[in-house]
Amino acid sequence: MAGKFEVYEDRAGKHRFRLKAGNGEIVAQGEAYETKSAAHKGCESVQKAAADAKIVEV
After folding, report:
1. Which residue, 19, 20, 26, is CA-closest to 42?
2. Nearest CA-CA partner of 32 in 18, 15, 46
């Protein structure tokens, strides 16, 4: 099963997203956004950045 982004409203009324692996485990979470639309854009930004992201040790 493929992973998925979930967009939700937190207790403070802000919109957030989390990325879940195919097994349901949360592997990443986004910051708080004022609007649902902004949270969706955050998901899209992560998708674009992750496509070419390298793994580096610091």
Report:
1. 19
2. 15
Contacts 24+ apart (CB under 8 A), 17-26: 17/42, 17/43, 19/43, 19/46
Which CATH number applies to 4-51? 3.30.160.160
Those residues with Cβ within 8 angstroms of residue 20's Cβ, 6 or more apart along the chain or in another chain: 3, 4, 5, 6, 26, 27
Torsion-angle region of 32 (φ positive above 0: left; ψ -120 to 50: alpha; else: beta)? beta
Q: What is the pLDDT of residues 8-30, one digit of tens each?
A: 999 999 999 999 999 999 999 99
Q: What pTM, to 2 d.p., does this model score?
A: 0.85
pLDDT at position 54: 95
